[in-house]
Amino acid sequence: MNEDLGPLIPEVALAVAAVGGLLAGSWLPRGRQWAVGVLAAAACATGLAATAVTLATGRERAVFSDAFTVDTATSVGRLVVLGALLFVLAMSVETVRGDRRETEYYVLLLLTGLGTLAMIGANDLLTLFAGYLLASVPAYALAGFAKDAAGTEAALKYYLMGALLGVVLLAGTAILYGAGGATLYGELRATLPDAPYGLVAVGLVAVLAGLLFKVGGVPAHYWVPDVTDGATAPVAAYVTTLPKVGGLIAAYRLLHQALPASDVDWPLLVAVLAAASMTLGNLAAFFQTSVKRLLAYSTISQVGYLLMAVAVATRAELAQSGLLFYLAAYAVTNLGAFAVVTELPHARTLDDYRGLAARRPALAAVLVVCLLGLVGTPPTGVFLGKLLVFSAAIDGGYGWLAALAVVNTVASLFYYLRWLGPLFRTAPAGPPAVAHTVLGTWSAATACTAAAVSLLLGVAGGAVLPLTAGALLP
To answer: Residue 196 needs a FRET pair 20 to 30 A away by CA distance; which of 172, 215, 356, 366 works?
Structure first.
């Protein structure tokens, strides 16, 4: 049994910072709890540095009896999650500064990020379930952190859906263990082809149900708009970004490593779920007037595009590169849009953004980049990500799914333009609108940085793509 903690430096850094931050916060005065936020940022930076070394040196391995793997998918997932955590921490500064529970906020973010990292590298069903729990429970508390009516309702809905589908995931784990006699993906790969078809099918559907909850895909998507709308803007940015990275990479690894030769037609199942997610998300977003609910339904549609890569995990060479690159591009683009929403706390509807280009040109420019980026407009990173995923779907034999994705992409332009249009309309006469009152500098800086990174990924995609091409460890 390999119990070397060296390959787990990013996870250990988050765990140590969470425990240390909780202890430090118990005696720090309220005006100095920002130090825990600095500690959280330092832990993320440490994890990013360790991951960069792993990618540069190619030190890929499986640890703890192969229950956790450190390979290309794990490393890229770590970069995305830790980078996204830094963005969320930055846009949270003005929101939680001086709050009596500021320390707890940062600790909860660290713990849920740690759970997401555990899901990304999980090579065992029990490790996957443990990561699911660690990523979910702190997130429920974050959803209701504001302790207002909307946040409490959001936390309750999030918890009930998560608890239900968590039990379903655990039941699926037990069924697959009964069918294959193991929980390690490598052992299931050898035993599941000879296992009873019905057991494998039921177990797989149950496990996928839990993962669909994490990513917000149909039919486990019902919590997404309510939680996004009820939580604070930085928490909404978190729940629409980080869980998707963990859940989608976990689903890709499970299907690619444990069920490549199974008689269960899981590629078609995932393809149908992808089609349903992208279509329902787009249709529901068409006539939304709340900016947070619009982004919530947008993220459901984005899950549909990302699931295309999971559907062809064993059929197309571009599947892994497309999934990982798209996740990175989507994460930074979505966080950029939410950073603008955070910076304008009183602008809750599309009409509240009227005249923003004249009064806040930098924020308007960020919205243009991020919203058109979510459509998949060049030269943003999402454009290249969609191109890779659509090509993978065609190579994997799902040309109909790629065609449907193109139609949905064109249709999505409608509701993004409904948001962008008011930016350039004439602002009402008189003093600046209350809706355009800004929160501070941290959220604005986060928004501008995210938009710049989104463009950089699109322009320099050729240099980034080779980092995503390594094979998964067996």
So the answer is: 215
Residue with the bigger pLDDT between 100 and 39: it is 39
Calculate mean pLDDT across residues 113-142. 97
Question: Which pLDDT tens digit goes with each residue over 419-447?
Answer: 999 999 876 655 556 778 899 899 999 99
pLDDT at 1 over 90: no
3-state secondary structure of 69: strand
Q: What is the DSSP letter of 63?
A: E
Query: Is the separation of the CB atoms in 318 and 221 below 8 Å?
Result: no
Cα gap 466→198, rounded to integer Å: 39
Domain ranges of the chain: 274-474
More confident residue, 431 or 121: 121
State how far the Cα of 204 lies from the Cα of 172, in Å rounded to an integer: 6
Span 331-340, pLDDT tens digits: 999 999 999 9
CA distance 472 to 256: 9
Question: What is the SS3 assignment for 51?
Answer: helix
Q: Measuring CA to CA, how many Å separate 62 from each of 68, 132, 249, 256, 351?
A: 6, 20, 16, 16, 52
Instruction: Put residue 385 in one of left, alpha, beta given phi > 0 → left and psi -120 to 50 → alpha.
Output: alpha
d(CA 146, CA 101): 10
Q: How far apart are CA 19 and CA 13, in angstroms?
A: 10
